[in-house]
Specification:
By secondary structure, this protein is mainly alpha-helical. It contains 22 helices and no strands. The radius of gyration is 25 Å and the shape is globular. GO terms for molecular function: lactate transmembrane transporter activity; symporter activity.
Amino acid sequence: MSNFIAPEIKKFVAWDYVVFALLFLVCASIGVFFAIKERKKKTSKEFLVGGKQMSYGPIAFSLTSSFMSAVTVLGTPSEVYRYGASFVLFFLSYTIVIIFTAELFLPVFYRSGITSTYEVSKYIYIFFFKCIITDDSHTLLFHELFLLQILYTGIVVYAPSLALNQVTGFDLWGSVVATGIVCTFYCTLGGLKAVVWTDAFQMVVMVLGFVTVLIRGTILSGGSTKVWEDAYEGSRLSIFDFDVDPLRRHTFWTIVVGGAFTWLGLYGVNQSTIQRCISCKSEKHAKVALYLNLLGLWIVLVCAVFCGLVMYSHYKNCDPWTAGFISAPDQLMPYFVMDIFSSMPGVPGLFVACAFSGTLSTVAASINALATVTFEDLVKQCFPNLSEKRSTWISKGLCILYGALCTSMAAAASLLGGIVQAALSIHGMCGGPMLGLFTLGIVFPCVNWKGAIGGLLTGITLAFWAGIGSFVYPAPPTKTLPLELSTLNCTLANTTSLLTTVAPTAAADRPLLADTWYSLSYLYFSAIGCLGCAITGLLISFVTGWCFIKTKPCYTRTHPTWSSKLHPLSVFMPYLWEQSQNTQLEDKNNSF
């Protein structure tokens, strides 16, 4: 029980529900609009990748909205509030990631003429694993995609719903189910075009919500100068920490290097990203979309960081979490919003719409990506002669299936702790090994099938070993270094409870690895998986014999012929080269 008297914070009122409901109504309407507009275009290509006629503008908005989810809206300000503004260094990570994605990975996927990133992987694996079991190797990565997308979607749906429920009184499971239904609705009706344009609208709502909170919070805190002074006095502006200790939670190196690996797994080889990029009318449009998306990432990051600083300035002498007014740090942002907008009905509803805009966009992206991969890599392989009409209906059915599955998985997210760390940890654990394997196939043409499978298994083992260990044995405060929070100006409930003596509890036994390997910064999980995969793959290939590349590989699109001396990418390259020539001709015919 709290020793302090909690201030009265109003719950949602009718106007808040009206504003929030308008968000869902507009999103559903976009799905209906594209269902009517595109009713004569009944091909699965139109449904899944928008007929590859999308321009760079909406794709850029969609990419930003999809990956700046409610995890960012609620989690990042809380991180800054507790640990300081070093989170802003992610702008360097984002820059590195977008450059690598646009210049290294995107050309391979776009020129291949595929819909699913795992179609490329399948051609690569036919060579890598032909001496073992081809289908099982492809299924391994396919299952990892499911694990990554569904678990992450569970966090995105459940965590903000829980935080908003406990602070605003907004119904927990009502918001979870509503999110799933609305996303599934407009994904199923409108396909990728509906997802992209809805994301663009949600991006606007997200930035509008942030700006509204920033302006109101800054005014109540005494102006931007006062916010800056409070942040400086509270050590929230100590951004550049060049300590190379990998056990430290946030330093310059963990954020820039570890963050780059984590987000490269999200962008470089992630189905949601690549599917949007290859829906563009040309490779040039896709690259421009990625670089414009970088600007959007910077804007949302800066808004979130400054919201954290404003929130600290407001609560510097009476921290709601330490005082017991809220039960988890992830509830700080919604608590702050309900506090500063208590006299302005409808505005809290705008913030909730802001948070759920991120949720809707991410869930929709996951549903669309999972449906696309399943259709391209499973359904079409088993039933190659499906009619376009039947293919479209199957694609819509898959959207409904994955919408229900992602929504039902939300309950599992309650076991994973803080939403930012949980989200990035899962992406690191699953995305790192995938990034390592694709890197082997694209950058190192000397790796053989033994190196590939050995590297993949090593990367998965290392990443999950460190990640699961960190969940079971959290790092000690000496490594996470949370900053000081005060309750100096909080109103005491009574003095008796403060004098109550609590019997000391014995410290739980921690294994030797708990303060070393398991205390590794969560941002390094992806780097461990990627580098473990790549290094092991190279070492095994060195020991067992490199692959040699022939100058003229024998390959056709429909009937590939594989030689034991050929690296998979070298076999696939003739088709990529042919497609790149066609793409260049298309680029000349397509203007901005």
